[in-house]
Amino acid sequence: MKNDHIFDGIAEKFANNIYGTTKGRLRHTLLCDVLAPYLARPLKAIEIGGGTGVMTAHIAAMGHDVVLTDASSDVLSKAAPLLNASDNIRIRHQYLQEIDDLAAYDLVVCHAVLEWLDAPFDAIDFIHKNMKRGARLSLSFFNQDANLFANAIYGNFDYIAKGMKAKKQVRLNPKQPLGAMRVVDYCESLGFKVLDKAGIRCFHDYMRDISHQNSKFDELLALERQYHKMPPYLWLGKYFHLILEKG
Hints:
38% of the residues lie in helices and 18% in strands. By secondary structure, the chain is α/β, with parallel strands linked by helices. It has a single domain (11-246), classed as 3-Layer(aba) Sandwich (Rossmann fold), CATH 3.40.50. The longest helix is centred in the first third of the chain and has 14 residues, at 22-35. Residues 46-137 form the Methyltransferase type domain. Its EC number is 2.1.1.-.
């Protein structure tokens, strides 16, 4: 826990990097898409590492009771103005490993958290162990397989040869990208049932003309929606998403 990466001191930069870009808008839109079929009935939900609360706000706006947690007090201070007007949202400042009431929720949301943790597979195990049977986990993470593919396209062969470990860790670069198939296998080994899987940004990050990420955003979004659950494209998503159910 002490070596997990949190965003105190860079909350503004974090928010701008996530939601002030086409990559952030696209990621959020696609995550809302894949969650939609699992939000059809009233739920009690908890978002782990929910940051500035954009996904929490979306789930709450659909009528669900949501608890937002994050380890960064700075990031949560940015969430408060967005969420405080809603009476079906509670905000808690805590690390993932400190959450002691996961069994109270029908839906656990953990998006773009694992890659910042010192022991991401231990975190998956913790979540599974503490969820109630029949509850569902919406899990997304930075995809190491897509990261390698992108660096090969960019010609970063020395970086790949060194295991894609930067000499100096940039604070907004994930410290622990995870291979998608490895995570799927691990989740199934714990007893999770995979209900759905999707790539998030299967095309956006590979575009040769990056100006098209903005000028052709609607066409790009349509393409992502058409193919992001289909192999082989889903495995190339810069983020990978799973809906898991505890048996």
